[in-house]
Known about the structure:
CATH 2.40.50.140; Rossmann fold; 17 strands; globular; 8 helices; 3 domains; alpha/beta; 27% strand; seven-stranded mixed sheet; 26% helix; six-stranded mixed sheet
Amino acid sequence: MNVVAEVLPTAIGERHVLTIEDIAFGGEGVGHVGEFVVFVAFVVVGETVEVEMTEVKKKFGRAKLLRVVEPSPLRVTPECRYFAACGGCQYQHIAYTEQLRIKHKQIADLFQRVGGFAQAVVAPVVPCPQPYGYRNRIMIRSQWNKPLQKLNIGFIRWDNGFVEDLDECKIAEPALSEQIKHVRANPPPKGGIKVVLRIPPEDWVVPRDSFFQNNFFLLPKLVETVRGFVKDGGAKHLIDLYCGVGFFGIELADAVESFVGVEFDQQAIKAARENAKLKNRTNGGFITGMVETVLPELIKKFSPEATTTVLDPPRKGCLPQTLQLLRDTGPAQIIYISCHPATMARDLNILCADGVFELVQVVPLDMFPQTQHVECVADLRRKRQ
């Protein structure tokens, strides 16, 4: 039998001039060589660019940007001298208003493709009042640079996995850049060490390894969005799953008659109880345990029709058994908060299957300007008992 080899329209090392048609989820631009899809970073929709192929697969390829032949009017000068080397940011070369448009389109397309949700359900992206200097937590790494015989201290590069040596981060709060300089002046003893730099939130107890939102500047708007959904849902009771140090339960305690937070991390629960005392929240409490174990009894105790459940899971999303429990126990409202729209859309699709829940609205908030990431808050209402 004769086997005919498929001839691809390009090869590694070849150069092409492309027109950028879209920005894919993850931040890469999309162009074509004939019908063949080519992804290239650090471009803007509408630009004509010259690229060199670096990866060629059966259905798509990747290329590095050599030069911008015809720039977009939305292209701007990045503020960071490490941009396009450090892997932390993808969009510093794009005007901020366009970044917001890109993220909205990506989320609306994703929700339509993964869950079959109407694009109109996704609200415009809420902008950050401070698009630079906003991160309150970063993690830098050390790596021995053998050719230069020195220790590199910084972030992982986007293209090769090595550490880019740097002394500041433009999207971090300035105090963290000062901390980077301190680490450089007092370097780790060897490569392979991670150093977490953090500005702790005022009036909150947060253990070293516990999660807290990375953007203080947009945090009030995040709380306002969740609070608006809770009030609109009219529930009397709030169950805060994956509650961490109790942030949402405590912030929303005055909007309900009672609340309870659930978290497996004992240190986080200890901090949550201290935070409730600090904030004088006396109408709720916190439980240490697995969500899958604790949730059924809590729903029964509060009564499903009077309960709102807040979900703020890790980036990987919820376990299938958690989603099934929510479908079975049936709280009147679920407010799902996530910094990973893909896993969120997957989970919402499961919750809404067979008309059990209805997705009312998704509000994206730009908690991570200059990057591909975005925080989303979804409001789901129980439909079928």
